[in-house]
Structure to design on (212 residues):
C-alpha cells in the first residue's frame, strides 16, 4: 500500500528558515511542496522519508533565498494491482460504490464488479447484494474489503479558458469572466489519481458479511 519513491528536485529555502539545520529546512520545504499531493506515475505523496544527497546551496541575485539540489525519498500511497485493502463506503450511485480510506477518497467500485446479484436500490440510494433470498445492504460508512483492479493517473494541470465575446459583441464584465472560469473549473473535476476496484470474490465486500 505504501512505497518509497526516489525523487530529485531543487528546493528553495527562504531566509526565515536559515536558522534551522539544513536537514530540517530541506525536509520542511519538501513536505510543503509534496505532502498530500499526487505526482504523476508516482502516487499520492505522504511525507519525506529521508534525504539521500544535497548539493551546495546557491543564492540568486536579488532573491535572497537559497536553492539546493536534493535527492530524497518520499513515502507514497500507491497500492499495487491485485492488492486487497479495507476502507469505508463513502457514497453509492447507479454507477457503483465510492470508498474512502480516510486520507484518500478516489476509490471506485463499478456496479459490474460488485458481487453477482447486486442491484441499486433507488429508494434507499444504496447497493444491495441479493444472496440466497436475503438482501445485504451496502450502507454508507460500512467497512468494506476490496481488491485493486487498476490505477488511473490523469494530468489535472489547470488550463485557462478565455470566454469568447464574438457572439454578443460586448465586452465581458469581471463577474462574467469569474463565473465562466468557476463553471469551467467545477465541470472538469477529474481526480489526478484514482483506483478502480472489485469485490466480486469470496471474502470481499462488507466485513460484516464474512464475520470479520
Amino acid at each position: 500500500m505504501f512505497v518509497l519513491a526516489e525523487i530529485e528536485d531543487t528546493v528553495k529555502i527562504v531566509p526565515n528558515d536559515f536558522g534551522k539545520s539544513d536537514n530540517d529546512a530541506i525536509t520542511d520545504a519538501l513536505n510543503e511542496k509534496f505532502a498530500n499531493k499526487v505526482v504523476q506515475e508516482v502516487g499520492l505523496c505522504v511525507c519525506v522519508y529521508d534525504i539521500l544527497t544535497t548539493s551546495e546551496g546557491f543564492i540568486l541575485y536579488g532573491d535572497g533565498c537559497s536553492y539546493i539540489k536534493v535527492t530524497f525519498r518520499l513515502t507514497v500511497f500507491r497500492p499495487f494491482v491485485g492488492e486487497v485493502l479495507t476502507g469505508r463506503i463513502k457514497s453509492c450511485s447507479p454507477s457503483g460504490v465510492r470508498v474512502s480510506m480516510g486520507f484518500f477518497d478516489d476509490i471506485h467500485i463499478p456496479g459490474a464488479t460488485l458481487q453477482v446479484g447486486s442491484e441499486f436500490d433507488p429508494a434507499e440510494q444504496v447497493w444491495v447484494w441479493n444472496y440466497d433470498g436475503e438482501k445485504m445492504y451496502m450502507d454508507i460508512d460500512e467497512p468494506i474489503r476490496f481488491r485493486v483492479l487498476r490505477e488511473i493517473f490523469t494530468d489535472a494541470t489547470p488550463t485557462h479558458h478565455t470566454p469568447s465575446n464574438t457572439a454578443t459583441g460586448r465586452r465581458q464584465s469581471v463577474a462574467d469572466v469569474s463565473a465562466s472560469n468557476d463553471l469551467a473549473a467545477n465541470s472538469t473535476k477529474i481526480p489526478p489519481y484514482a483506483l478502480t476496484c472489485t469485490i466480486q470474490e469470496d471474502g470481499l465486500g462488507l466485513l460484516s458479511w464474512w464475520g470479520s
Observations:
- The longest strand covers residues 2-13.
- Confidence is low (pLDDT under 50) at residues 183-187.
